Amino acid sequence: xxxxxxxxxxxxxxxxxxxxxxxxxxxxxxxxxxxxxxxxxxxxxxxxxxxxxxxxxxxxxxxxxxxxxxxxxxxxxxxxxxxxxxxxxxxxxxxxxxxxxxxxxxxxxxxxxxxxxxxxxxxxxxxxxxxxxxxxxxxxxxxxxxxxxxxxxxxxxxxxxxxxxxxxxxxxxxxxxxxxxxxxxxxxxxxxxxxxxxxxxxxxxxxxxxxxxxxxxxxxxxxxxxxxxxxxxxxxxxxxxxxxxxxxxxxxxxxxxxxxxxxxxxxxxxxxxxxxxxxxxxx
Length: 283
Description:
By secondary structure, the chain is mainly alpha-helical. It is about 85% helix and about 0% strand.
C-alpha cells in the first residue's frame, strides 16, 4: 500500500466491518509507528534541503541585484564621461576652426599688404633696395608658416578629442552590454529560484566544469580569429572594449547553452576573461 494512504488511514477510526469488507488492511501498531517515524524523518530531511537551496538562491539574487546596481553606476559614469569628452571635442574643434579662420584671414591680409606694397613702390626704389624687400617677404612667410602650424596643432587636438569620445562611447557600450547581461542573469536566476517558493534547480560540480570549458572555447575562438590584436587588447586590459561585438555574440551562446542556475551560482564568463588578461600581463 502507498505510504501516503497508510498515513491517511492512521488518522481515521475504523471498525471490524471495514476490515470484513476489505476496505482497510490489517497492520500492526508497531509497523504503523515505524512507518510514521520513517516518513516523518524523510519529510524533515527533504524540507531542510529545500530550505537550504531556497536560502542559497535568495542570497545569489541579492548578489546579482548588487552587481546590477554597481553596473548601473558604471553605465552612468561611462555615459557622463562620453558626454564630457564629446563636449570637449566640440569645443576643441570649434577653437581649431576659429584659429584656422584667423590664420587664413591673416594670410590674406599679408598677401594684400604685399600686393599693395609691390604696386605702390617705384621701380628705381625697388631695384635700389632688394635686400629690404626680401627681408620683409621672409618675415611674412615665417608668420604664415607659424599660423599654419598653429592651425594644424589645433586640428590635431580636435582629432585627439574625437578619438577620446569614440573610446568613451566604446566603454559606455561595454558597460551597457554588461548591464544587459546582469539583467538577463538576474531574470534567469529568479525564474530558476521560483518566484512562488519553488526549489532552485540543482547545480553539480560537473555543470560548472562544462560551463567553464564552454567559456574557454568561445574565448579561444575570438582570440584565434585575430591573435595579434587580441593579445594586445588583453595585455592592455581593453579586451572587453575592443572586442565588444564578438564577446556579446559569444556570450549569447553561453547564456543559451548554460542553464541559469549554473550562471547564477558562479560568473564563469567574467572569471575566464579576467584570467586571460592576467595571463597576458605575465607574458
